[in-house]
Amino acid sequence: MNDIVNAPTTFQQAYVFDMDGTIYLGDHLLPGAKRMIEELHRRQIPVRFLSNNPTKDPHQYVEKLARLGLPTEVSDISNTVVTTTNWLRANHPDATVFAISEEPLKRSLREAGIRLSEDPAEIDIVVASYDRQFDYRKLQIAFDAIWFHKRAFLVQTNPDRFCPFPGGRGEPDCAAITAAIEACTGTTCQVNLGKPSPVMLTAALEGLDVAVEDCVMVGDRLQTDIQMALDTGMGSACVLTGEATADDVAALDRAHRPTWVLDRIDRLIPASVWDELGWSDDDQ
């Protein structure tokens, strides 16, 4: 692990953070997260938060971060509820959508004027998402809209296989639902609206006058967080507090490794600043 872990020695101009597995796990901040965010704010360095989780809207994330001691503006948060709604409104405003999702996404689509339906004969787009109420009835509607009526196509909010939980557990995520629809219809998902899609980066940097190459994406997943950074020329930091392990990183060829690998999130703050502030690993 010591051969893999390396930390930045200078500050970047802006930071984009994944949340689940990076800033917090479950209902607990990860070690060093609070003081790290506070130090970036103190230095007036822009901070943005991203999540592939569509089961909460930005306001709910603001509430959660506030409970955890990290007051945040709604404008600093973007997730797949935002990107999916924006993409449909921009590209298919008149489409009739069947959203296999939980209420935050459905509510956002309705508020944006997107028509929702469960009638396969009138569905234009099936949106697969993280849905803990997914059942055979919903699969049948998607099947009929895509395969039988041959009018709908499939998009997904995010490509994650599972959502990590404390204690090493997890729940099947959107990719499992997408795979079920693809398997029975023989179709292929046409659009991904979560990381590593560049639409997430666009959402994160909106309103910031900072070049992509001067930002860093910080996350715990190589296939989404880090891949988005690699695809867009953005610096990246993989924190080993969520999905990715040191062995996972070591297995990559050097061209596909993150810029930095951190054993804890506050290693983003250069070691020289740790010394100035009197920080230690024992502090939170």
From TrEMBL:
<dbReference type="Pfam" id="PF13344">
    <property type="entry name" value="Hydrolase_6"/>
</dbReference>
<protein>
    <submittedName>
        <fullName>HAD family hydrolase</fullName>
    </submittedName>
</protein>
<dbReference type="Pfam" id="PF13242">
    <property type="entry name" value="Hydrolase_like"/>
</dbReference>
<dbReference type="InterPro" id="IPR023214">
    <property type="entry name" value="HAD_sf"/>
</dbReference>
<dbReference type="InterPro" id="IPR006357">
    <property type="entry name" value="HAD-SF_hydro_IIA"/>
</dbReference>
<dbReference type="InterPro" id="IPR036412">
    <property type="entry name" value="HAD-like_sf"/>
</dbReference>
<dbReference type="GO" id="GO:0016791">
    <property type="term" value="F:phosphatase activity"/>
</dbReference>
<keyword id="KW-0378">Hydrolase</keyword>
<dbReference type="GO" id="GO:0005737">
    <property type="term" value="C:cytoplasm"/>
</dbReference>
